[in-house]
Amino acid sequence: MASYSDGRGVSWSPAKRIDDAPAGTSKWLYDHMIASGNENIYVVWRDRRDNGTTEEAYFTATHDGGVTWLPNIRLDNGAAVGAEDVDEVEITACGDSVYVLIRANDATAGEGEFLVSSHDAGLTWSSALRADPDLGDCDDEAIACDGRNVYIAWCDDRNASADDDMFFIMSHDGGQTWMAAEVQLDASGPANGDVDYGINLVCVG
Q1: Whole-structure pTM value
Q2: Residue 115, C-beta contacts closer than 8 angstroms, at least 6 positions apart
């Protein structure tokens, strides 16, 4: 549900449902799943509408301050519909460029990180671009953008199954390709500790 104010917070519109899933569908929406840009509001969440058990990432947006909302769009997570669970989604936006980072299960090393992007305020979306090299299980992530530049950080356990390390990667073409291979940001190995939850990523243009 969404409600909008006259701009001062004095009065609010009646709450409006923004998802179009069947009644009773389980859904998950948190604060890091909402972004804005160019007076548009973008929302992404997880729900089980497709088969009742597998979570997928869905998106909607309003371009008129919350009066109307786009029909829901399923975002690509690198697998067929219902094939793999989406465990987390994060969103960021710069004007009409919108980026969603999806952490989804895969059939090999565990959870992977997938980026999808839109450059028309959420009307159309790219296919998933994998961020991690599929060498370990990903557990946490963050995303930030500056126009067509998008930056991603995450943790995975490729170096030691009991410990996570932090990695960073970036794209300068709107999420079509990665500029270079990922860079590890922390010291590696069990003796150097475990990167825990709570990654934050800030972009200053």
Answers
A1: 0.95
A2: 99, 100, 101, 102, 128, 129, 130, 131, 143, 150, 152, 171, 175
Terminal C-alpha separation, the chain? 33
Q: Is the dihedral of CA 184, 187, 188, 190 positive or negative?
A: negative
Contacts of 187 (CB under 8 A, 6+ apart): none
Structure tokens at 12: 């609010």
DSSP symbol at 190 = G
Q: Tell me the per-residue pLDDT of 161-176, one tens digit each, with 9 for 90 and over.
A: 778 999 999 999 999 9
How far is Cα 34 from Cα 42, in angstroms, rounded to an integer? 6
Beta-carbon contacts of residue 46 (< 8 Å; ≥ 6 apart): 27, 28, 29, 55, 56, 57, 58, 86, 88, 89
Task: Name beta bridge partners: 163.
Answer: 160
